[in-house]
Amino acid sequence: MKLVIDANFLVSAYATAGTIQRYWRALDARDCRRIISPEIFAEVERSLRQSEFGLSNSDIRLILKDILDHCELVRAGSRYAGLIPDESDRHLVALAIETEADQILTGDGALLAAKTIEGIAIVSPRNFFGSESNCVAPSVQVID
Fold first, then answer.
1. Distance, CA of 121 to CA of 55 (rounded, Å)
2. Any idea what the CATH number is for the domain that residue 84 is in?
3. Total count of domains within the chain
4. In this predicted model, what pLDDT tens digit does every residue of 23-57 receive, in sequence order?
């Protein structure tokens, strides 16, 4: 399965302990192609540098390296020109189309409201990890 990972999911997975962090680690149990773009990567870095997280430069470097170790970095060659709830998510949809992703994993409410764009499912972490048909092996139990 090909999965485009939104920046908000990655920031939550690394900057805060909790359910999203456990979900992120649960992806290691299955062979799932995790895809991000340079724009997503830059957004994660900007977010992690916010003082509210209290991360050192060294911590941020380690996090970014770990993200690159787990994700494939792909630059979308074109912009998505169709209707989209939030202009800032246009690169996510273009990336998903170009890589023929099965789903976009996001916590973005406007994008989630669309449910699908161009045949690509837009899923929340809770819905994604609640489905055995996705990347997570059924034997991996993620507890909220």
1. 33
2. 3.40.50.1010
3. 1
4. 998 888 877 899 999 999 999 999 999 878 899 99
